[in-house]
Every structure is written in C-alpha cells, then in structure tokens.
Amino acid sequence: RQNLVSIKDMNKDEILLILMQAQKFSQGESWRAGEQTFVANLFFEASTRTKTSFEVAERKLGLEVIPFEAGSSSVLKGETLYDTVRTLESIGVNAVVIRHKEDQYYKQLVNKVNIPVINAGDGCGQHPTQCLLDLFTIQQEFNRFEGLKVGIVGDIRHSRVARSNAESLRKLGADVRFSGPPEWFADDYLTAGDYMELDRLVEEVDVLMLLRIQHERHDGGAEMTKEDYHQMYGLTVEREQRMKPGSIIMHPAPVNRDVEIADGLVECSRSRIFKQMENGVFVRMAVLKKVLEGSNSNELVNQKWQY
Ligand code: CP
C-alpha cells in the first residue's frame, strides 16, 4: 500500500521523482487514474492552502472529490478516526488526505486500512506535502540542494514544517541552520549545534525560511509582544537589505504580517511565498499519482532539471 505519512519514509530518489513529476505537471502534463476514483479530504484542523490545493490537484487529475466536513460527521458522535476511515473505505473511497491535531495519528491507520493515507499535517509532527512543495520551489530557483545554505527561523519546536524540511534538506545535501527564540527550540537533534544569531544568518543563507508562531500549540504562558518578536526574530526591512544577492524568502503561510516578516516584504522580489502556494498544486498532483498508481520508487532520476 502506498502512503505518504512522513518525509522520513522517502529516500532521496523518491523525493526527486516527486519533484520531477511536479515539474511535468507544472508544464501541462496530464494523468488520469483510469477508472472512477474517489478521494476524501478529512481536515480536523483549520486549513486554507493545503485543503484547497489538494482539492484543485484532485480535480485536475479527474478524481471524484467526496465532501467530508469533520464538524458535521459522525466524529461528533464519538466515532474514532480508524472507524471513520474504514467506513469511507467500505463505501468506496479510494484514498484519504488527513490533517489532524494528534502527532502521528496515522499510526492507527497505516497497515490497518486498505486505502492510501496522505498526511496533510499531524500536530507538531510532519507536513510532508508542504515539505515537498518547499523543495520543489527551492529546486526551481537553484537547480540543486547540495551545499545550499538554508536558514529556518522561528517557532521550531511546534513546527511540523521545520521538522519535515530540515530532515529532507539534509538528506539532499543542504546545510540547514536555525534561529529564533531559544524557548521554542526543539530539544532533539534538529537544532543541536546548528543555531545562528539571526543577524548573521540573514547574511549567509541562500534560502531564508520563516515560520509562523503556532499560538494554538503553546501552553498559554506569557509571550513577547508582536513588536518585540518582529524586532528580535522577524525579517525586518533592514535585515532583508543585508541578505545575499540571489537569496530567497520562503514561508509556509499563513503569514503574520509585521511579526515573522515585515508587511512590505511578503510580496517583495525575493519572496517566493505565493510561488510556494502555486507549486503546492503540482506537488500534490504528483503525490496523488504516486499513491494511486503505486509507482516504482527505484526508477532512475538522474535526469537534468531544465527550467
Ligand atoms: N501551509 C499550510 O499548511 O497552510 P494551511 O494551514 O492554510 O493549509
């Protein structure tokens, strides 16, 4: 069974194959599942980009999108996630896309249900399709990962994007560094010895990846003001002016303007924030194709990227 629940499960070749397919979709390639195929998007946490771009991707592939609203489903009557997915499978749904607040919710599904599961974000765990669209955006820009210097800044501890991106970028040969408030640093290997002061980091990186402050995952303790955060850990206009020529700004969004990034920089010439969203559709088409056709991950990927 093909699933995509964590970027950790993908080797370098599998990642590059997805990026290559996303590139083909961005250039107009089409693919159809062959017979009537039903997909349901189960979002138990808020989403604009991921949910909408999965739905656009599904419709572009000719898939039948089955509406599912957690707030009017039998989850309200206490039905478990496992029983919900087994029910959809029994009714004829061929694949599910799930976002859930519980870390590793997918462990109750993988190898237990008989349809592919695509993780659209689990708690503070993983966000593999965001990671793949970020990689696709970086590859479009630089045509390489090896030796690229990437800075990830902000609420590292609560960010599934930071975790997924750091792991995959390192797998692909990039040099990943972190910055942000020390109290939001992850205690694990991700940040061991890789901290840099923000004022130095902005001058050295090729890619500056800013993270949203995840207030909804904080324990409610006292937090600094938005203005203080922006001055200490945000991309101010002054810091942007010290970035290297050719370097880019990324953010998974939603963006807190004037907190992680100055309002006027969200759409500046270095920003790829809306390009990331555009690329999300092509990457999600590639992921859906892969899980639905059970594609062979050992295919050769030594083709040169052309833009
Ligand atoms: N980047 C991202 O996952 O956005 P949404 O929460 O809007 O889906």
UniProtKB/TrEMBL annotation:
Key words, A-Z: Pyrimidine biosynthesis, Transferase
Binding site for carbamoyl phosphate: R49, T50, R99, H127, Q130, A253, P254
Spans through the membrane: none
Positions of the Aspartate/ornithine carbamoyltransferase Asp/Orn-binding domain: 146-289
Enzyme nomenclature, EC number: 2.1.3.2
Amino-acid positions noted as binding L-aspartate in the UniProt annotation, renumbered to this chain: K77, R160, R212
Aspartate/ornithine carbamoyltransferase carbamoyl-P binding domain boundaries: 3-140
Cross-referenced InterPro entries: Asp/Orn_carbamoyltranf_P-bd (IPR006132), Asp/Orn_carbamoylTrfase (IPR006130), Asp/Orn_carbamoylTrfase_sf (IPR036901), Asp_carbamoyltransf (IPR002082), Asp_carbamoyltransf_Asp/Orn-bd (IPR006131)
The protein's assembly and partners: Heterododecamer (2C3:3R2) of six catalytic PyrB chains organized as two trimers (C3), and six regulatory PyrI chains organized as three dimers (R2).
Function recorded in the entry: Catalyzes the condensation of carbamoyl phosphate and aspartate to form carbamoyl aspartate and inorganic phosphate, the committed step in the de novo pyrimidine nucleotide biosynthesis pathway.
Similarity field: Belongs to the aspartate/ornithine carbamoyltransferase superfamily. ATCase family.
Full protein name: Aspartate carbamoyltransferase
Organism (species): Bacillus badius
